[in-house]
What we know:
The protein is an alpha/beta fold. The chain has helices spanning 18-23, 44-48, 73-87, 100-113, 120-123, 137-145, 156-162, 164-175, 195-209, 213-221, 226-233, 243-255, 257-266; strands at residues 7-10, 32-36, 54-58, 92-97, 150-155.
Amino acid sequence: MEDSSKLIIHIGLHKTGTTFLQYTYFKSLKDTLYMHGNSFFVPWKEQMDKDNKNMLLSYEGFSGVAWNNKYNWIDSFEINIEALQRFFPDAIILVIFRKHGDLALSMYKQYINEGKSCKLNEFYGDNAVISAKDLNFERRINFLEKRFNHVYLLNFEIFKIKGFSYFDNLFSKEFNLKRIAIEENSKKSNKSLSGSKLDLLRKINPVYNRLPTKLRKTFRYARISPRDVLQNKLSFWNPKDSQDFQDFKDKLNKEFAQDWKYFESKQWKG
Length: 270
């Protein structure tokens, strides 16, 4: 890509290392105004006064709200992408994909972390929280490529193996951007619960959710909510996932094998 001012938008997907990248890699890029989350609302005059040639926006929510009361995940994604096209038609789009079964299982764990209580077999399926059309990568990719000229599809499985060098190659080769030295082994965010620990939280959630809102907010502020206790106070306890979880992953990865191959045929091969 030619050496000119660039607007890069990273849109997720969910559970593909977004928070980790936001707090480590993205903010280390040189000559780049980087914003995510609430930093989008920093006064623009203040941002414009900074001597940055490029801009990078990172927000997982751009890829859609996976569970909400109005739209399913894929529809939410398409609505957001159309809005991005209207506001930023010349943007460069980055999106990271993860194998379907691994993605769905990780999202289920997040669902329980957020206070829900459904069982795994109630999470995915027709009329469930996540359905097959939500996991259709080909549909997402085609939707993006019809609306933006520069779409870079990245592989979470490769990122896990190569680490920051995967993104170094991308930003250097494609955008002529470098970064400052950072610690790659930085503490990762969003620790996941597993096995009987997750099942315990699932069973506690309905009881906890019936407590008065003020009391729950107090527990959360003091970091003594059930989730906080299980994630942090009991961090030494790391039970393994059940065979049912492994079977769920394997089943979905097999079910969407052709869709994953389609993604691999389109992924960035730098």
